[in-house]
Amino acid sequence: MKEKIKLQLESLVGSKLNNIGRASNLFWLELGERLSIIRRGRTIELSEYALNIQCSWRITKENKIVVASGDLYSPSSDWNVDKEDFDWDVQGNNKFDEKIEYLMRSIKEPLVVEKIDSDEIGGLTIFLSKGFTLNVFPDISRDDEYSEFWRFFTRGEDGFHFVVTGNGIEKDFN
Asked: Is residue 125 classed as helix, strand or coil in its secondary structure?
């Protein structure tokens, strides 16, 4: 599995990290060249590559965790316990949203993928410029159809999805 992952993701080396965000607890990254894509009759700008992560992950720099998957479930620093109940899924409410916004504002030039590494159980390490590292580590033993750890996909005419699950690797061409 390790070599298949590295081979599939080697196209990311040299790619710029354009955007980071979340949809509920799914962490996503957009990388590579910007493309104009027609969706539902509208032209939108998207990156050529996307990585969706649904297992534990962390971004580190110099032996310090900058932001991690557990930050989704902690309130942001401006949350007021006396005024409101904490709902982690509301955009802007949690520590992840706060830290990602700060990270994206503080880097002057986009981070670039320098190297990819993997392991035999679907773990992934992406080494970025400026000393940043993204570690993705599957953290459940489930191996059914709902055990997707992460998904790498390309956009455009020759798009495909490369999915790492508890059952191994799945590949789907559009």
From this structure: strand
